[in-house]
Structures are given as structure tokens and as C-alpha cells.
Design goal:
The chain is mostly beta strands. It is built from 2 helices and 63 strands.
Length: about 950
């Protein structure tokens, strides 16, 4: 059973399997009770000068409201947690500001508990702790949570108490204005939560285990003694009010169940959240439900729009909520790895709009508050390309690029060239990095088959550092995946794969922070030297995909090149430590999860526990790890994953699975295992959502290798989120990201799911080395999808046309390249990249780069840019920033003999090349100008 690191009201569900939730989780209907919902028309115009405060991970973050949704969120950490900063504080729960406009605030503070005990810290506006309020508690692990000031300066706080169904001993405490004494108003709350105070001085407090909102009305005690109305004592000897005016304000209904967060609406109504069921409701002053602001279709975790714990309301009426990202199944539910802060805005009629993510990747975000203020204007955004295809939607399109145009394409000149001792098939990654001397350099990251990963100066091509990666003797494509740059625990890391190892390096220095091995490690058990079990007749594990980072987790696939000595799979690895979070076995559909105490740094789906360095009982005692481990050559993943942050789903393609009906062979069959040669949607928690494929039996290897694209299409006047992917069958498919066609109702698991796509378009016949083998480019502004196709069956006689533009909304062919000769009509194994007006395509036979007019397919540029002696083409996808195009050159494939044409091509010296438009920053002036 998962126990969250930080106490949460959702823990009331543990041990509560006897409870019957179904009647309370019925279809949601808004009950109008005569009260008018909040309307933004009565509010001030959306203003500036507000900061959103958010407690998470024992720290206090701030976000500049004015920068939310701009693509450049200004944020800082006002109070760092004590484990990171020796002068920091462990802070959590609600934040409430003193009413004197001093900027001072109160928040739960439990640094070093139980000695000193937990309490409520008093902080200056700059985050310095000034004092601490400590009460007495019934539970040893006290959790101060809620706080709010009344109109007269009285402070009201809540302490959670017992965190589950059972003893109701949560507390509501009032602190007199001098803050030197307190009186308890209630000591019997069932998991006490948020506190709110209205203009009449009435105090509201949630109780998640009690499943109500309680309201306390004045008059309240005036001092902590009998004369002041606080003559009682509790079991700890603390003062308790003689009497209070208390009533139940709201009870379960319309999906509202585990009440957690509270905030006053601008019209005097009360907003409340239900953390388990993911609802936010508005109540009038009499406790009548006015409407639901957030009413997801799901009733239990995981809910796509999150699990709101804390609430806050901005000056313009925007509602913000802290999302715990609950995971697990009842009764074992706890916070997940991707906590978030969301906002709900209102239209001109006061109707709530779909929630939007403000910040993700948070650890246990629970409290929110709004206060006046601004953060310093962030530095101008430095354009980057931080991962394959530019971002998690994998669109391979830079809409902000304006210097490379159809008119300027022919004028491209070489900006710099960095030579390598073997081919570069990975697409470059570009990101600004804070260097050790505190300068900021924009670096180009890429891996070459020569055994090195490089960081180069974007402006000059000068080498900043290089990292030697370990070879995988059995890998045919040892350095195919691109790098991803991500900020992990305050440090900018660059993640990449080579052979069977994924590395996490310091982006500034190249120092190794961790490595994870998708296999045994290719070392002899006795000598520690390679190749160990690896080689072309043995372990063929290779990670060809680009890691994608969500929160602090990296996701990637592994394949074995269709060889029956092993099988592939899909991994989630902790990006802070490099340890296995979970493993999805593509062939069986099982998700293996190590125990929290495990530190698994080597893993695959077929080697023995001893070969992987695991405890002997690992596969029998860890959840989901007891699946069939027989090697079949299936389960291959060389597609990288795309990520939908709202659905919290990853999408990737799976490759070939050879099948037969011979029981003497290791191959399955005749039908393929369900996740092979498919488009797979899996949650970031490792739970598969759906999968789809165009055929159940495939003797022709018409698999998926391309990375899926995420975009939105128009379907009968409605905007629908889709995932698109090209296949080796020469067809591009578009499917609903939820796995159900909204028009036909066909679902992925119907008896005949072939009608699931909104549209499919076949542009070439395809084949084992053909079709849309690599990632397409998506231009949502022009409603176009651009794709190139591979040869098909013969490299020197490619299926043509080889470049295609499709209508995004219906799949109609907008144009296809008219080039039928060589080199203009060459095929491509590489991704298609694009900028407004220009489509960029690689090549197969020689390293020539081609640029096409995005409007009509006219060939604008066709030049050999690789090294003169390089005979292979260009499989790298281009990244274009500030008028500079960066790309690698070369194609190859290693073999066991080491002397094939593919080996020769792979080991030929090559280069990373930057071309630029004259007039672009740092672009050399062409001769004669």
C-alpha cells in the first residue's frame, strides 16, 4: 500500500473498503437553488500585480500571474525546504496573509518535527521566518494545514488530526489578535482541512473524513480563559471554548464527497473542492449548491483534470487549484509524481472554461493563495529546441522561425561544421545552459556513432565538452536517439541513450549524474569487461528512442532489432536518481513495479534476476513482475513517445513482431501479441489506456517506427484532440487521443476497430524499408502535415513521390513532390522538419539536404552538405532557430561481421552542420556581398 510522504486528507480512504461510494458518485447535475453564480462582469478587468503562492514539496513557490499562459512563466521559490537549504523551512498547507498589508503571512511549518513540534510559521514578505505558533495535538505526527484571518484580525487554523476514517480529532483553533494565546473551537473534526472566513466573520472548515463542510459563527471567545468563554480543557490540557455556534454547511452530493479546499467567490459565495472525486463546486451562503465549476466524467483516480486540494481566487475571479495527482485504486490512493497547479477562467457570461495547467511536475502541491506583487520580468526567452521534434507534442515544426523562408532558402550558407569520426543520425537538441562561469550559452547537443556525445556552441560550433559512452557490441543502431534537456531538482540535465544505456549528464559540464541500463550492461560477470552476454548472437538490446521527461521521470523504449534472442519494452526511470520506476512489457501488457526500497539500475523483460543483478525473488515478489520472460524478438520500441499533459498519457509506436504457427520456434502467433506493431497509449503511471493497429497478422513488417504527432483537427465543426502516426505501410493515421471516435462511436477495443481513425491516407505502397518510417511535421496554423517516405524495397529505386503534404483535418493530399529523378526525388529515412513556408527533408543515397516550398512542393534547395567521402544520406531531422538550421549527416547499420556496406557507411567520418540565412545572428557574410 502506498503511503504518501506528506499527510493528505485522501488518506481517509485507506482501510475504508467497506464504505459505499456509488450513491455519492452519480451523474453530476447542477442544482440551482436560487443563488446567482459568480459572473466576471461584476469584477475588475483581469489585472496585473498578483502573485500566486503555492506550497509543494515542503517549499513555497510563487508564480507571477501576469506571465501565466505566455509561454514564459515567471516563478521563484520564496521558501526552500530544509533538506535542500540548511537555512530553509519545511512549509506546507494553506497560506494566509496578515490583513495589515505588510506582506507577512502564516503557513504550516514542521521543520525537524517532532522536535521542535509542528506549528504555523509566521513569515516576513521576503520569506524569513519571524515566529511560530504551536498548539497541542492529539496525534504524534501533527499536520497543521488550514489558516485564515477574520475581519477583526483573529487567526483561525486547522490541524488535520487522525488521517483516516476512525477517530475524528482534527482541530479548529482560533488565535487571538496578539497571537500569544489560543482557544480550540472544535476538537472532533474528521481530517480537518481548509479554512475560510466570510465578511460576517463566519468560519468554514472542511473535514474530508467527516464528508462535510462545517460553519462556525460568532460570537467567539475573547480570551483563553473562562472569563473569555474558553473555560474548558481538552485531553492535552489546552483551552477549549465553552460553547460554539456550529452547523453543517454542506454534505455530500453531486459528486462532492471528500471536501478539502475552500475559497470565497467574489460574490460572497463559497467555492469548495472534493479531492478524491476531482470536483469544484460553488455554494451560496445557505449551503445550497449553485453549480459545479469542475465536473470530470471520471469518479475515481486518476482524473484527467486532477484532484483539487487547495483553492485560491484571483482579483479577476480566476479560480486556481492545487492538484495532488492521486494515483492508485481504492482504498490505496495517494499523491502521484506529477502534481500540478491549474486555473479555471470564466467567459464574459461568467461560465467556467476548461481548466488550464499553470505548472506541472510538482510534489504534493496542497495550499494556494493570491497576494499583490510582481516578480522581476523574466529575461527574454532564448529560442530552444530542447528535445526531439522540438517538444512533447512531437510536431517537428518551429512556428516562431521567420528568417528561413521560401525566398531565402536558396541563400543558405555554412555557418559552421563540427567533424566527427562516424555518422550522426540523431536530430540535434538546442538549449540555453547556465555555465560554471555564470555565463549563459546556447548549446547544441548530439550523439555520434563515433562513441561520443557532444555539446557544441550554437553560434560557433566550438566544442564545449564531450562524453564517452559505452559501446553495446550487439547494437545495429547504437546512437540513433536524440537528447532531451530538462531541469531536474534545480539542475539542467541532458538525457540521451547510446547502446542499451540511458545517461543523465550535467548540461553545463558533461559530468555524469546517473545511468540506467536497459539490459545486463554488456560486461562479463567475472572480469567486468565487455561484451559479457552482448553481441550479435546474443544480447541485442538498444535504446533508439529519445527520452521524454515528465515531472521528474524519464520515459523511453528499447528494442532488440527483431532478434529472437531477446525482447523489447518501455521504461519509466526516476530522472533524479536513474532508478527504475516501472517497466511495461510490450509483449504481455504487464507493468512491473519495483518496491520503494529497490534501486534497480539494470533491467529488461527477459534476462534472469542474477544476470540483471536483482534479488533472486524479484520477479515473484514485485508487483506485475511475474510476466512471461521468454525471449521472442517482439516488444520492440524504437519510436519515441509523445506526451499529452492533460490526459497524462504517453503515445508511442511499436515495431515488428515475427509470428508463425510452429510451436518449435520462440515466435508467438499466428496473431501478434496485442501491443506489438501498434500505436500504444499508456499513462505516466504505467497503466495502459488503449492500443490500436491496422492489422492483426503482418508477414511484411509494416510496423510503426515513427514518433506520434499530437495536434487538434476539425471534426464536423468541433475541435478534437488527435494523435497521428505514419506507418511503414505508407499510410498516415489520425486517431482520437482517448481511443474512441467521437463521430462513429467506434472504440479501440471494439470487435472491428478499423474504423477508429478519423482519417487515413496512404501516400505510397510501403514495405519493409519504406513508408512513413520516420516522424512527420505538423503545421497547425496552415492545417498541414508534411511527411517524407523511405525507399520501400530497393534503395536505388524508391517509391515516389517521396515528399507529401496532407490536409490536417481530412487527410486529403495537398501536394506531393514532382521530383522523380535523383537526387531531388530521393527517399528519406529521417524525420521531416518544417518552419512556416519551408519543408526540410533528408536523403538516403548521398548526404544532400532538400528544402521544399510548403505551399506547393517546389524544390527550393538541394545540396550535398555532408563530408565529401560520406556515401550515405541524412537521417537526422533538422532544428531551425533564429535563421540557423542544424542537422547531422550520415546513415548506417552495424552488423556482426563488421564489413557490410552498412558498417562502412556507419563508420565513415561525418559531421554536424549549421547552415544559416545571411543576415541571421552570427551568420557569415557570403563572398561578394
Amino acid at each position: 500500500m502506498f503511503v504518501p510522504r506528506k499527510a493528505s486528507p485522501v488518506q481517509i480512504l485507506r482501510g475504508a473498503a467497506h464504505a459505499t461510494f456509488a450513491p455519492l458518485l452519480s451523474a453530476l447535475a447542477v442544482v440551482a437553488a436560487g443563488a446567482a453564480p459568480f459572473s466576471v462582469t461584476a469584477q475588475a478587468e483581469p489585472g496585473t500585480g498578483e502573485l500566486l503562492y503555492s506550497t509543494e514539496g515542503n517549499r513555497l513557490r510563487r508564480y507571477d500571474v501576469e506571465t501565466i499562459g505566455t509561454g514564459s512563466l515567471a516563478e521563484d521559490i520564496l521558501v526552500e525546504r530544509a533538506s535542500v537549504d540548511p537555512e530553509g523551512r519545511d512549509i506546507n498547507g494553506e497560506i494566509c496573509f496578515f490583513p495589515d498589508a505588510s506582506g507577512r503571512f502564516v503557513a504550516g511549518e514542521d521543520t525537524g518535527q517532532p522536535n521542535p513540534p509542528a506549528g504555523w510559521g509566521i513569515f516576513a514578505a521576503d520569506g524569513t521566518q519571524l515566529d511560530k505558533l504551536t498548539a497541542t495535538y492529539f496525534e504524534s505526527g501533527a499536520e497543521p494545514f488550514g489558516c485564515e484571518f477574520g475581519p477583526d484580525g483573529t487567526l483561525f487554523t486547522s490541524e488535520v488530526g487522525f488521517q483516516g476514517f476512525g477517530t475524528a480529532n482534527g482541530q479548529l483553533i482560533m488565535w487571538f489578535p496578539e497571537l500569544d494565546s489560543f482557544c480550540k473551537l472544535a476538537t472532533d473534526l474528521g481530517t480537518a482541512g481548509a479554512v475560510a472566513v466570510d465578511d460576517a466573520g463566519r468560519v468554514y472548515v472542511t473535514q474530508s473524513a467527516g464528508l462535510t463542510i462545517e460553519r462556525f459563527s460568532p460570537p467567539f471567545p475573547t480570551s483563553d480563559d473562562a472569563a473569555g468563554g474558553c473555560g474548558g480543557v481538552d485531553a492535552t490540557g489546552a483551552p477549549v471554548a465553552d460553547s460554539v455556534q456550529r452547523e453543517t454547511f454542506a454534505t455530500p452530493g453531486d459528486g462532492m464527497l471528500t471536501f478539502s479546499g475552500l475559497a470565497l467567490a467574489p460574490n460572497g459565495n463559497l467555492y469548495a473542492s472534493s479531492v478524491l472525486t476531482g470536483r469544484i463546486a460553488e455554494y451560496d451562503v445557505d449551503g445550497n449548491l449553485v453549480r459545479l465549476l469542475l465536473a470530470p466524467e471520471q469518479d475515481t483516480p486518476p482524473i484527467l483534470t486532477g484532484h483539487p486540494q487547495g483553492l485560491a481566487v484571483g482579483a479577476d475571479g480566476t479560480v486556481y487549484y492545487a492538484d495532488l495527482d492521486l494515483v492508485g485504486t481504492l482504498p490505496s490512493v495517494g499523491p502521484g509524481p506529477d502534481g500540478r497547479v491549474w486555473r479555471i477562467r470564466f467567459d464574459k457570461n461568467g461560465e467556467p472554461q476548461a481548466p488550464e495547467v499553470v505548472r506541472d511536475g510538482l510534489s504534493f502541491p496542497d495550499g494556494l493563495a493570491i497576494a499583490p506583487g510582481n516578480l522581476e520580468t523574466p529575461d527574454p526567452v532564448i529560442p530552444d529546441w530542447p528535445t526531439l521534434a522540438g517538444g512533447p507534442a512531437r510536431q517537428f515544426f518551429n512556428p516562431a522561425q521567420s528568417l528561413l523562408t521560401p525566398e531565402s532558402a536558396a541563400t543558405l550558407v555554412e555557418k559552421w561544421r563540427f567533424r566527427t569520426n562516424a555518422v550522426v543520425t540523431a536530430s540535434p537538441t538546442i538549449a540555453p545552459v547556465l555555465m560554471p562561469d555564470l555565463s549563459v550559452l546556447r548549446l547544441v547537443f548530439t550523439v555520434s556513432w563515433d562513441g561520443y556525445f557532444y555539446a557544441l556552441n550554437f553560434n560557433t560550433g566550438a566544442e564545449i565538452w564531450r562524453f564517452a559512452w559505452e559501446d553495446q557490441p550487439g547494437a545495429s543502431f547504437p546512437a540513433a536517439g536524440s537528447a532531451t534537456v530538462a531541469d531536474i531538482n534545480g539542475e539542467r540535465l541532458v538525457l540521451f541513450a547510446a547502446g542499451q544505456i540511458v545517461y543523465g549528464l550535467s548540461a553545463a559540464t558533461g559530468e555524469e549524474r546517473w545511468r540506467f541500463t536497459a539490459g545486463t550492461g554488456c560486461r562479463d560477470a567475472q572480469t567486468g569487461e565487455p561484451p559479457g552476454l552482448c553481441g550479435f548472437s546474443g544480447e541485442r538490446n538498444q535504446v533508439e528512442s529519445t527520452p521524454i521527461v515528465v515531472g521528474n521521470t524519464a520515459y523511453f523504449g528499447m528494442d532488440v532489432n527483431d532478434v529472437a534472442t531477446g525482447k523489447g519494452g518501455f521504461y519509466a526511470v526516476d530522472a533524479t536518481e536513474g532508478t527504475l520506476a516501472w517497466y511495461f512489457d510490450v509483449e504481455t501488457g504487464a507493468t512491473c513495479r519495483p518496491d520503494p526500497s529497490d534501486e534497480v539500475r539494470r533491467f529488461d523483460g527477459y534476462h534472469s534476476a542474477q544476470e540483471l543483478g536483482l534479488p533472486a525473488d524479484f520477479f515473484t515478489t514485485r508487483s506485475g513482475c511475474g510476466h512471461d520472460r521468454a525471449p521472442t524478438g517482439c516488444g520492440n520500441v524504437w519510436s519515441s513517445a509523445a506526451h499529452d499533459p492533460v490526459r497524462r498519457l504517453l503515445y508511442f509506436g511499436t515495431s515488428n513482431c515475427d509470428t508463425d504457427d510452429d510451436p518449435q520456434t520462440p515466435a508467438p502467433g499466428p496473431l501478434m501479441p496485442p501491443y506489438d506493431e501498434a500505436l500504444v497509449a499508456i499513462g505516466t503511471d504505467g497503466v495502459p489506456a488503449w492500443r490500436w493497429r491496422p492489422r492483426e497478422v503482418d508477414p511484411d513488417d509494416l510496423a510503426f517506427g515513427a514518433v506520434p504527432n499530437l495536434f487538434t483537427i476539425d471534426v464536423q465543426g468541433s475541435q478534437v484532440d488527435v494523435v497521428g502516426i505514419g506507418g511503414k505501410d505508407g499510410t498516415y493515421y489520425t486517431l482520437d487521443r482517448d481511443g474512441i471516435n467521437e463521430v462513429t462511436g467506434v472504440a479501440w477495443d471494439d470487435a472491428d476497430p478499423l474504423a477508429l481513425p478519423y482519417w487515413t491516407t496512404q501516400v505510397v505502397p510501403g514495405g519493409k524499408i519504406g513508408g512513413i518510417i520516420a516522424t512527420a511535421s505538423v503545421d497547425e496554423a496552415q492545417r498541414r502535415i508534411y511527411a517524407s517516405t523511405a525507399p520501400g524495397f530497393e534503395v536505388t529505386a524508391p517509391q515516389r513521390p517521396t515528399v507529401h503534404a496532407l490536409d490536417m483535418d481530412n487527410g486529403a493530399i495537398y501536394w506531393q513532390s514532382t521530383e522523380t529523378g535523383f537526387p531531388g526525388g530521393d527517399a528519406s529515412y529521417g524525420p521531416t522538419s518544417a518552419v512556416p513556408g519551408v519543408v526540410i527533408v533528408g536523403s538516403v543515397i548521398t548526404p544532400h539536404l532538400r528544402l521544399f516550398d510548403a505551399d506547393n512542393g517546389t524544390l527550393l534547395y538541394d545540396k550535398v552538405i555532408g563530408e565529401p567521402e560520406t556515401l550515405s544520406g541524412i537521417a537526422s531531422g533538422a532544428a531551425v532557430i533564429d535563421g540557423t538550421l542544424v542537422i547531422g549527416a550520415g546513415i548506417g547499420a552495424r552488423s556482426g561481421g563488421g564489413s557490410s556496406p552498412g558498417d562502412f557507411a556507419a563508420n565513415t567520418p561525418s559531421a554536424i552542420i549549421a547552415l544559416c540565412v545571411p543576415g541571421a545572428p552570427e551568420c557569415p557574410v557570403p563572398p561578394g556581398c
